Batch of 4 targets.
Target 1
Amino acid sequence: MTASNSHSTRLAKDFHPTPLKFTQRECEILSLLSQGLPDKQITLSLAMSLSTLRTHMDHLFRKTGCRSRSGVVAFWLGLQ
């Protein structure tokens, strides 16, 4: 597998490159994710349901093209 093939296999299937704009809530979630907090602590910290957190995570996966939480965090930290 070449380097370009390796990179493309890590992207989510429905990834469409666009200029990234994270919402304030997504930034809050990303900050807590980058601290290694589990879902339950994130939902308690942000006063949201697990379902709402999962919806935000789905949006983050689509926006970044990543398929894992660690990938999303690494992507976000790379933008800082």
Target 2
Amino acid sequence: MRLSDHDPLHVLLELDRGTEPLGRIREKVDAYASAIPRSELADLDPLVLFAEPSPRRAAGVSTALASHDSDGERSPFRVIVWSDGDQERTSTLHQVLAVRDAPS
């Protein structure tokens, strides 16, 4: 994705509907962490974005991501809430840019 006033953004999106157990999310994180460095994406520094349907689910996924060992490097994994019903949200694109730049 190319945006004015920003570096190019490479995103792998996991749109979660909350149907998989958190153990499966941990498996996906491990698979991404293993595959990305060996793939053509390695030099692109992709952001793996887990978009969650609720704040509660986002908290569970965040906990699952926190257990991932990134060997002291910045983690490529981030979590956002894509629908929480009651709160007015900023655009998803602004959320993606904010989480990309946030500390892991």
Target 3
Amino acid sequence: MEELVFGRRYRVTEKIGSGGMAEVYKAVDEVLGRTVAIKVLHSRYASDAAFVARFRQEAQAAANLSRRTPRMARLRAESEVVRADLLAIFE
């Protein structure tokens, strides 16, 4: 796998999953030295407003749940970064 870095901060170490809407990568936050998971919306959906809205809604739901459930991955950030990828970053 070629080196993949998102936002000049998150260095991908491996791909850990893929689904119909997104791919999930294990990465290292180069600033804080923490391992994170990055969910990346497939590029074919990035220009589809309905898919983008659904992706953001899912990220917001995860953020709301993780505040009440200590064992659930916590949403750290959601942003549009390099190459117009839509990301959700969990730790």
Target 4
Amino acid sequence: MRHVLLINPINPNTSASTTEHLAQTLRPLLPVGVQLTLGMATFGAHYIACEPSHAVAGAAAPQALQAQVHSTLVRRRPEAAPS
């Protein structure tokens, strides 16, 4: 079985452009063979800039992480062996 190192950072705001900027910043820093998959909050502030948006991000980030882990596991699930 081949093992792959995954890095799954979570962007706790809802800005796709910020998430993409994070990905573009991180990819060149990764060693060869490391895969980057970013998650993003599905609710909350577009940009986190005040105490209330931080509070909402604190609730959004765990949900985004759970969704990201589930998505990664589903994508990497080995195909069932033929019977």
